[in-house]
Design goal:
This protein is mainly alpha-helical. It contains eleven helices and no strands. The chain is globular. The two termini are 23 Å apart.
């Protein structure tokens, strides 16, 4: 799961949104350095990642990718699943996507102490509506390009968009089958 899915699954309160994002930027043990609600959301984020990585439907989706892309197929799939969620938002959420993202952006903009890497990208995320832009399939090319610049072997992401075009329908079906499982997992995750 990528940013949008973690935010959607992590709860609707500001601390939950922050923790849902912090999960990608905070490493190591949580020892009270954040508000308890934020730390609980970070833990949920990590548990969602483990649940996703071990789920047989995700294995099916990952197996669709070519061998040359297998190493980073999980990253590509996470981004694609955010596209599916944004595209089909009304199926999975009660409020419009624009309203949801506006709330997240307001919380991000007003938080003075974001983790360092998140603090650097948050203004761009807000200004360019990263979360809402996932509705548009072609945006994924920019997203994957940005990710590839941070990888040690970026050439393995080359051609990912062409592969996603070919796999669009089967991966969309994989998402439709999988997402209710991860929603159920997140809703039944024990809170502190």
């Amino acid at each position: 799961m990528n940013y949008l899915a973690h935010l959607h699954l992590g709860g609707q309160r500001p601390g939950q949104w922050l923790g849902s994002l912090y999960g990608d930027f905070v490493k190591g043990r949580l020892q009270g350095q954040f508000d308890p609600e934020i730390e609980a959301a970070i833990q949920l984020h990590r548990s969602i990642d483990v649940f996703t990585d071990r789920h047989p439907l995700v294995d099916v989706a990952l197996a669709r990718f070519s061998v040359t892309r297998r190493r980073y197929a999980g990253i590509v799939l996470d981004v694609f699943f955010d596209h599916c969620l944004a595209r089909d938002w009304a199926t999975y959420a009660d409020q419009p996507l624009r309203q949801f993202t506006a709330g997240v952006y307001q919380v991000l903009s007003s938080e003075a102490q974001l983790p360092e890497r998140l603090a650097k990208i948050a203004p761009h995320m807000v200004a360019n509506d990263w979360l809402g832009s996932y509705r548009e399939f072609e945006v994924l090319e920019q997203v994957l390009g940005g990710i590839s610049r941070r990888l040690t072997r970026p050439e393995e992401l080359a051609g990912a968009m062409q592969e996603l075009r070919v796999l669009y329908e089967p991966l969309s079906e994989d998402f439709r089958l999988f997402y209710p499982h991860v929603q159920d997992f997140a809703q039944n995750y024990p809170s502190t």
